[in-house]
Write a structure and sequence with these properties.
Elements: H1 2-10, E1 12-13, H2 26-30, E2 43-45, E3 52-54, H3 55-61, H4 66-75, H5 77-85, H6 121-131, E4 139-140, H7 142-146, E5 155-156, H8 159-166, H9 171-174, H10 181-195
Antiparallel strand pairs: 1-2, 2-3, 4-5
Length: 196
């Protein structure tokens, strides 16, 4: 959405590309709006790719969905050319810090039925309801097995019901994973006593 806003913000009234030597599409193509295919009326150029449109044609186009903007960026030769000339990411200095591998991922999960990856808790529920509603297999809940108290060998008899009843909220909202069970119990007890 930020990319779309920056494109809209950078749209400025501008003269159309100039002169017969300005391009290889001929004089008519240089002064024609790609939307209405007529000679420009109040030309407006988009900042990022430099495309020019009629002001009247561009206004309804600014309401276009972000998905359509992505389709344009994927098919726009000028955008592709600019992307090809961008420098590739390379770290300035190699890091001496190890990549943490002992920290379990409790944000995204893998579907226990089909292996679909990177699903957050709500996406996992939606995915399973849409794709595995009638699957009778007993499976391990990936959310529970990622928790410190979870049993990675326990298989739910009805995984969808388990998701609907056990995972109505995200544990991250209520759980501090950095403290042990006794410290969590003491903190809950102290909070309970302070509220009364």
């Amino acid at each position: 959405m930020a990319m779309f806003r920056s494109l809209v913000a950078s749209a400025q009234p501008r003269a159309p590309p100039g002169g017969p030597a300005g391009g290889d599409g001929g004089l008519e193509a240089q002064f024609s709006c790609p939307i209405c295919l007529e000679v420009y009326q109040r030309p407006v150029a988009i900042g990022g790719c430099g495309h020019t449109f009629c002001g009247e044609c561009l206004q309804p186009c600014l309401q276009v969905a972000l998905a359509k903007m992505r389709v344009h960026a994927a098919s726009c030769a000028k955008t592709q050319e600019q992307m090809a000339s961008c420098p590739k990411f390379a770290p300035v200095v190699p890091t001496s810090q190890p990549i943490p591998s002992a920290i379990p991922n409790r944000s995204t999960f893998t579907c226990p039925y089909c292996g679909a990856r990177n699903l957050d808790q709500q996406e996992l529920l939606r995915h399973c309801v849409d794709n595995h509603r009638s699957d009778p297999n007993r499976v391990v809940c990936p959310i529970c097995s990622a928790m410190p108290w979870g049993d990675p060998s326990y298989k739910s008899a009805n995984f969808l019901q388990h998701l609907l009843h056990r995972h109505k909220f995200s544990y991250d909202t209520f759980v501090d994973y950095s403290i042990d069970e006794e410290a969590a119990f003491q903190a809950a007890l102290a909070l309970s006593l302070s509220e009364n």
